[in-house]
Design brief:
It is built from 15 helices and two strands. The chain has 411 residues and is mainly α. It has one domain: Glycosyltransferase, CATH 1.50.10.20. Residues 22-33 have a biased composition (Low complexity).
Length: 411
């Protein structure tokens, strides 16, 4: 993902000198002066470009593992929210308004990640509602979202925002300005099954409208087309089998996901990993984050058999990458293990649970002791969405019809 994976990727830039959210159409995430690591924040690296992202993924992974995150960690994330509801990559001074002179700029990727985390933690409906309202105001006429306010749509940002609304129980097909939904965008950008990049999606069209396959965007698009967020379990095997399939009719979202899965399977090396785009004059290197995202995408689409090889490669090779990259990388591996139905306590001999928890404030309790404190996902999501709907109808007036989720990488 490199919109969805911005924190891990951007952290890797700092650690290795080497892309949810990210980023995106505006490839420069909101910036702040370099600061020391704040209390309550996961990870020790400079949070300027990935603080909210890595915090969100870490909290979401802890909840997925059955833990209740530390209050200080949750409060840190809530405190990062901007006045209008969005989240920036990091706000060094939360007393300074966002979007003003010298203020941090909110973006869709950080916001969508925060929504998924806070919804999973529970008890923060007001913050979730406010963030969702902000996201609705940024939907483009083509049905998608760009990285920052006013940016053109891209596959990664659109997919991570879909995941945010899906997390609260809202059908993404009901999100549209005019007649276009986010699914319309993904369907339009799905490459045909014949020719280069068969079944893939681009990050976004180039200036001439050409669509070029992008493995990062394609992995994100699988979850987006399926209406799923970062955390998912293995789905049912697709009826059309493990292959790319064209249709005389417009593709359904499920077909977009299936064709994208076919592309990802073909893009894997013989050893089972995806390559990163080579730096000028350099060689391609294994892309650990994209490989983890591919495992989650394939499993979510019911392609668990093809996902076994890249998952096995991650177990053998990805722990060192996670140690260098930090909490978001550990979270991605937790999501991969969860999607495959595997035990994250024994990931190639490494306890991902202990490793993740060691990067931030210790979680409070295990799931068994916490179920009463966590609102039911369906009930909470429904309540949040109706409040969002009321806000849109009453005050925003952006034409929503309430009827019924970096650097561009080539594979």
């Amino acid at each position: 993902m490199n919109v969805r994976r911005s924190a891990a990727a951007l952290a890797a830039i700092g650690v290795l000198a080497a892309a949810a959210p990210a980023t995106a159409a505006d490839p420069s995430p909101s910036a702040s002066p370099k600061v020391s690591t704040p209390s309550g924040l996961f990870g020790k690296n400079d949070p300027t470009y990935d603080g909210v992202w890595r915090q969100s993924l870490a909290l979401l992974a802890q909840r997925t593992l059955g833990y209740r995150p530390a209050t200080s960690a949750v409060e840190w994330l809530v405190g990062q929210q901007c006045e209008k509801g969005g989240f920036a990559a990091f706000r060094a001074d939360t007393g300074k308004p966002c979007e003003g002179k010298g203020g941090a700029r909110p973006d869709t990727n950080s916001t969508a990640a925060a929504v998924q985390a806070l919804q999973a933690v529970g008890g923060h409906d007001a913050a979730v509602r406010k963030a969702l309202v902000w996201l609705t105001t940024l939907q483009n006429k083509d049905g998608g979202w760009g990285y920052s306010p006013g940016a053109v749509s891209d596959t990664n940002s659109t997919s991570v925002v879909i995941g945010a609304f899906a997390a609260v129980g809202q059908d993404p097909a009901q999100l549209h300005t005019g007649s276009k939904t986010p699914y319309d965008l993904l369907t339009k950008w799905s490459l045909p099954c014949e020719g280069a990049g068969a079944g893939a999606l681009p990050f976004q069209p180039d200036k001439k409208g050409k669509l070029t396959a992008n493995a990062d965007a394609t992995a994100a698009a699988v979850l987006g087309a399926l209406g799923k967020g970062f955390v998912t379990k293995a789905g049912k095997a697709p009826e059309q089998g493990h292959s790319c399939a064209d249709s005389d009719k417009p593709l359904t979202p499920a077909q977009v996901a299936n064709n994208a899965s076919a592309y990802l399977t073909d893009a894997l090396t013989d050893d089972g990993y995806l390559n990163s785009a080579p730096m000028p004059g350099g060689k391609s290197q294994p892309d650990y984050g994209n490989t983890a995202d591919t495992v989650v995408a394939l499993a979510a689409d019911g392609w668990t058999r093809p996902a076994k090889k890249p998952y096995a490669w991650l177990e053998k090779n990805a722990v060192k990458w996670a140690e260098q990259s930090g909490p978001a990388a550990y979270a991605e591996l937790v999501f991969a293990a969860h999607a495959m139905g595997d035990d994250p306590h024994d990931f190639g001999g490494t306890d991902l649970v202990r490793a993740l928890n060691a990067t931030g404030p210790a979680p409070q309790t295990a799931k068994a002791a916490d179920e009463k404190a966590k609102p039911a996902a369906h009930d909470s999501g429904t309540r949040v969405w109706w409040i969002v709907g009321v806000g849109l109808v009453a005050g925003i007036g952006i034409g929503f019809l309430l009827s019924g989720r970096r650097k561009r990488q080539q594979p």
